[in-house]
Amino acid sequence: METGAHMGTSTGPAPGEPEADSAGGPGGDGTVSSGTKVANQDQHARSATRPQRPAPPGPLKPTRARRRPALIALGLALVALSVLAVVYLTTMLGQTFRVLAVAQEIPRGTVIEAGDLTVAELPTGPSALESISADELDLMVGKIAATDLSPGQLLTEANAVDELGPPTGQSIVGVALAPSQMPITALRPGDAVRVVETPATGGEPPTEAPFSIAATVIRSEPSPLGDQMVVDVQVTSNNAAALAARAATGRVAIVIDAVGAG
Asked: Which residue, among 152, 148, 92, has the nearest Cα to 260 in the 3D structure?
């Protein structure tokens, strides 16, 4: 009977059909179980809290360099000036000019001779050094050394003069001396000396310190009259008259205090 067959059939799934998930599988009515909803909510929450990666930047647009004619012109001008400076220095450094220099020591007040000088070469170009051209050698011979000149020193208009004049406040006095009135040591320009008053010939020596004047030897030459030596000495102007008066009597002598210290 059909009625018995219906009553004896099972409500389980047909062979080959999946069993319904009692925890959260889809029901027979097509609804989603509560477990599936919870899992989906957790996945959405994790996706929301995950940091978003920034989008990669787009390709850069190429920029065009601006041309500045003024700067280009300035750069070209600087390059040109540099080239000209190098050429000028190379040319000038390769050229020299000849000047007069001192070959041997020339004391102050000495007449300069040709053998006292030599020729030196200086580079051509601006220089703070004063010099005399080697072509003027003949003009320099016969001049007087205004200062003590050392070997290698350049000859100038200031240290080679026609006449050796005293500075302000100083005077030059000539003293004629016999050999007995001066040391055997040759007097040289620059020597520091004292001109001492002496007693008359055959007289008694002074009981007090004799009158004396400090002086500096300028030059000395043999006198054309007799065996005397004429010595030019430089003294302070206020002592010049007193020395000249005593030198005229012939009653003076020279004492060397220091060689070349004046």
From this structure: 148
